[in-house]
Specification:
single chain, about 350 residues, Jelly Rolls, 2 domains, seven-stranded antiparallel β-sheet, about 30% helix, disordered N terminus
């Protein structure tokens, strides 16, 4: 099966004519399946993608997953979006108005793990990041429709810039789980590795070469890699909900910024044993098996829960006591009336 170039764009090297040329670079002989995870990868194709990433700071990838894998990921992701995470109910987290966050997506479906250690992704990352990189974060979110500019031009801050003078390399792998026609990922190609990543000020935004802007719209399954120092943003307006996942790869030995240590952002990955069969030694290294570099034993969040959470906890305690009382009374009446107990299952 030939791999297709997924992303669409309105600028730069990704104009339709260039997309057609890019698609011709890939054929059955370039990437062919040999098993669930192990694929033969022609080095020329990998080198071309890695060179584009090096040049532009972003590269759209050919199709990485089968339709069945994508459906499994979409179904599992949607299940977590049914309700807010609370007590014994799994669900999403919400810390801002316009995004519903799902942490640790590697727990949800086999496809999320297969994507993380996909042979093509590994080959490109090895060229760009070197041999010591690991997957350090795997999360996703549902973006809600809005016309508000709440996530402007920036580079992703993650390392301690007070002690690290070097501009460190981090790559994120992004994949859309829904068709994206608005609110797509925007990037100014070629702006990576020039300075420490930060949120851009208005004066800096005015100086951006907007002629080099790339907008990566595309169907569900569209995937791309980008250097997190490249200037990027979420497009506006967001006219329909968007579901996407983002994996962060970097050298875990680099000193983290204080904020991420405070929130334990880059904790060791949470994994599902059911999805870890047939991992190679390299896959295990990438997933951080046995690496305790960023482990914070007995970590607890430093801030106190908000008032609404304490109110929920109190109401839950009252509800449980009332339920226990109701069950005792119901059992007593069943004994008096000689009725058999009902089961809810």
């Amino acid at each position: 099966m030939a791999y297709q170039f997924c992303a669409a764009s309105d600028a730069g090297d990704l104009r339709p004519s260039h997309i057609e040329k890019a698609m011709k670079r890939f054929s059955e002989s370039d990437i062919h399946s040999e098993g669930p995870r192990e694929h033969g990868v022609r080095l020329a194709s990998v080198d071309a993608l890695a060179a584009e990433l090096e040049r532009n700071g972003v590269v759209a990838l050919p199709s990485l997953l089968t339709a069945e894998q994508l459906r499994g990921m979409q179904t599992a992701f949607a299940a977590r979006l049914k309700r807010l995470r609370w007590n014994q109910f799994d669900g999403y987290q919400r810390t801002e108005p316009y995004r519903l966050m799902i942490e640790d997506v590697l727990l949800l479906d086999q496809g999320f793990v297969d994507l993380a250690v996909h042979p093509l992704v590994k080959e490109i990352l090895a060229r760009y990041l070197g041999p010591a990189y690991e997957l350090t974060e795997a999360k996703g979110w549902k973006s809600l429709p809005t016309k508000r500019d709440f996530h402007g031009w920036h580079g992703d801050m993650w390392y301690d810039q007070t002690v690290e003078k070097k501009v460190h390399r981090e790559i994120k792998l992004a994949m859309y789980l829904t068709d994206v026609r608005s609110g797509a990922f925007n990037v100014i190609k070629g702006t990576h590795q020039r300075q420490h990543p930060h949120n851009l000020k208005r004066a800096e935004i005015k100086e951006l070469p907007m002629s080099d802007r790339i907008e990566l719209a595309g169907p569900a399954g569209t995937a791309f890699l980008f250097d997190t120092t490249v200037v990027h943003r979420q497009g506006i307006p967001m006219l329909e909900p968007r579901k996407a996942i983002f994996y962060a790869y970097h050298d875990p030995r680099v000193a983290l910024q204080g904020e991420d240590i405070y929130y334990n952002r880059y904790h060791p990955l949470f994994l599902n044993a059911a999805f870890l069969g047939n991992l190679s030694e390299e896959d295990q290294r990438i997933l951080g098996f046995g690496n305790k570099t960023n482990l914070q034993p007995a970590f607890t969040r430093h801030e106190n829960p908000p008032l609404i959470q304490r109110a929920y906890s109190a109401s839950l305690s009252v509800s449980l006591r009332m339920e226990q009382f109701r069950e005792r009374m119901a059992a007593r009446w069943r004994r008096v009336l000689g009725m058999r107990p009902k089961t809810r299952y």
